[in-house]
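Readers outside the structure-tokenisation community will struggle with the description of the input data as it stands. What matters is that the chain and its backbone geometry are given together, residue for residue. For illustration, here is how one protein appears when written out as sequence plus structure tokens:

…
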Amino acid sequence: MYVHLELKWLDHPFSFNSFKIRDQKQLDTLLSLGLRDVIYVPEKSDVAPLPPKESPVPMAESSPMLEVDQLALADKKRRIARVSKEREAIQRCEKKFVGVISSVKNLMRNLMARPEESIQAADVLIKEMVESLLADRNIAVHLMNDKIAGEDVYYHSLNVAVLAMMLGREAGLPPEEVSLLGMGALFHDVGKSRIPDKVLLKTEPLNHAERALYRLHCHMGEEIAKQLGLAPRAIDIIVQHHETMNGKGYPQGLQGGKISRLARIVAIVNAYDNYCNRTNPNDSLTPHEALALMYSRERELYDSKLLKLFIKCMGVYPPGSIVQLSNEAVGMVVSINAKQALSPSVLIYDPTVPKEEAIIYDLTEDPDITIVESIRPNLLLREIYDYLSPRKRMTYYFDERTDGAKANR
């Protein structure tokens, strides 16, 4: 039987206000709440309730939660504590992201004026990130808040670097290769500094001449990278990140194994980020749509093993996806663990909980609750949209697992 409790989330021991009663233990816990009324939802129930008895059982006059199943209550308290730690982890990650993006902006702006200093700063930054990524810990990938994320090229460069290094880590690359991957990914679009903004920022499709000019950014990037003294394998990424496995990419039309493995990694991540963060946000795909498109219709463009590994790392519903759960709840995926990406952490819409205290539900805690589908943000009811605040830009950063929080943050 499917029921709904008209209580605040903190006033009962269940994971959700709406759920299906599956066993006697749940029923006993429900009865212990002392509620006079419980809303029965017939269209979501497998069985109908029994007819009421002539003499109803008197309900307890004590306040709710007074005699509730203590194990269930203790579990709820642990979950509340984990939600608090999850929120702290996201805030910690956002603070770290602000520092890193500030460093990226500074070194990129000074790249031509103080090249040696900028490249050295980038090298230090990437090596620090690699050290965190390759430490013997689970890594959680978090969705950043729009208030600290941005639309310019610096955020795209960092986004691609973060996701590329994560994918390289999962592919088993040694530290020195992950560092090369990070440097190449961070500077993969450096050639765009020589492309006019009217081409880069155009929201309509490029004409033939504009497209030809745009494609020069790979060779322009190669020239700049050589002047800066970047390593040859990092330069390969800059030149080849638009090459495709079927030989129909640019600038050289390389095919298959002739494309460097590091460039193949960046090609996947760069395409994903471009789909999610188009110049006009209204044209952007959801993270779920981007992965689905890349896998179902563009698979021949990418290294198939690396693409499958990327999807495994990000999950079918990456951070930023608006999702409906199997219990009808609606939420937004806010973080994943690369080792358990199919069971992400989801921020749940619940009008009984203040927005700033919104529940972050860890799907590993309940195997009966799964993601059913992805929802486009523009299809949400206004009150749900305002509560979840879907991101206009998908920006990610990572944080190492701590002992006090679940791995799949």
The radius of gyration is 25 Å. The first strand starts at residue 2 and ends at 4.
